Amino acid sequence: MARNDLISQDGVFTEFTASGGAGMLTIMEKSLSNLTYKSLCIPDDIEDRGLKDVKNFYYKEDGLKLWNIMHSFVEDTLSYYYYEDSDVKDDEELQNWIKEIYEHGFLREAKTGL
């Protein structure tokens, strides 16, 4: 829906931004070129950027608390529906969703870690 309503030929970005729709696609491609699955995981991102030992770094402190809460919820929920890794692999809808994320969010880049 966002691709249709925001960045399509008749989308909001095409009509109301100086860069236009084509320019927005270029900006998005450049900004997404460094995006990896690992960079979306707060603990890994903090570690990779060398911020693990920074004191009074509220993004780290609050972010890790939220990450742990969400991780626990997702882990509990997934373990209720999926008993083994093969169950996840065999879920066609889930695999199609991940494929869409890989193709449109990570621009089919192998280095993204998917």
Number of strands: 0
Mean pLDDT value: 85
Poorly predicted tracts of residues: none
Radius of gyration: 18 Å
Total DSSP helices: 7
Distance between the terminal alpha carbons, to the nearest Å? 23 Å
Q: Could you say which structural class the secondary elements and strand pairing correspond to?
A: mainly alpha
Q: Helix amount, in percent?
A: 55-70%
Query: Looking at the structure, what is the overall shape?
Result: extended
User: How would a textbook summarize the main sheet?
Assistant: none
Verbal overview:
By secondary structure, this protein is mainly alpha-helical. 64% of the residues lie in helices and 0% in strands. It has helices at 2-6, 12-16, 20-32, 42-48, 58-81, 85-89, 92-105. The model has no long low-confidence stretch (mean pLDDT 85).
Key features of this structure:
7 helices; mainly alpha; 114 residues; 64% helix
Topology readout:
Layout: H1 2-6, H2 12-16, H3 20-32, H4 42-48, H5 58-81, H6 85-89, H7 92-105
Question: Short summary of the structure?
Answer:
The chain has 114 residues and is mostly helical. The chain has 7 helices and no strands. The chain starts with a helix and ends in a 9-residue tail after the last helix.
